[in-house]
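Lay summary. Proteins are chains of building blocks that fold into shapes, and those shapes determine what they do. In this project we predict the shape from the chain. Here is one chain we studied, written as its sequence of building blocks.
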Amino acid sequence: MIVKITDTSRVSSLFGKWEETFIWSCLQGVMGEIYADDSDNPTAAMAMLGDFAFFAGKPTIELIVNKPAGYPKKFIIMIPQNESWQNMITGFYGKKAKTVSRYAMKKGQGIFDKEKLQNAVASLPEGYTVSLIDEPLYQMCKAEAWSADLVSQFADYESYRNLGIGVVICKDNQIVSGASSYSRYNEGIEIEIDTKKEYRRRGLAYVCGAKLILECLRRGLYPSWDAQNTNSVALAEKLGYHYSHTYMAVEIWDY
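And here is the predicted shape, written in a compact code that computers can read:
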């Protein structure tokens, strides 16, 4: 029987030293949920936040097939702790599963060149403005599919104001690019960055990323970056991050 865990200290050892902010968010009780095979003596656990689920401990099919009642989507990204979890996930979901590479960036302190980031922000072309996300901009982000994930994990603006942080670039009173907190843990955020299709390859994501990193540093938060593809790795490295390692994820398209 799968149970929702309220005392996360019971499952923290299963995740070990896994350096993943989504897991930290769940363990700290800031955002997300954790499910396990037993409430008192769990041997397997699933940390779930947004579109991501992380599996740790002894591979258990009951967790892999567990879909929380409140999860509305048919798409999810499953991150296995090891090859045994990965094989069980792909074996169960079959053609619904697509194994992909993702890229972890090192979570290093003191790696950012503030002057370089400030120069990046100053390079924003005329006609564009960069602003912190306030309530009207939060609502504008939610209104369009391409920008919704900048704020999607926060149920309302009050939640975003208390836990989130983000910036957007506007042109002609419309959002064209943004960088924001997909999620929050005690010490920092996980960055989500998006640009409207027709405004890509103009350096706007670089400006947004630079501005958000500077704002995080000003507030004493760490701006964690996990890259979905090699383009994201390149942008991260341009901003000052360093590549750590490649890991496997499984995208499920009919969850």
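What the prediction tells us: The chain has a mean pLDDT of 97.
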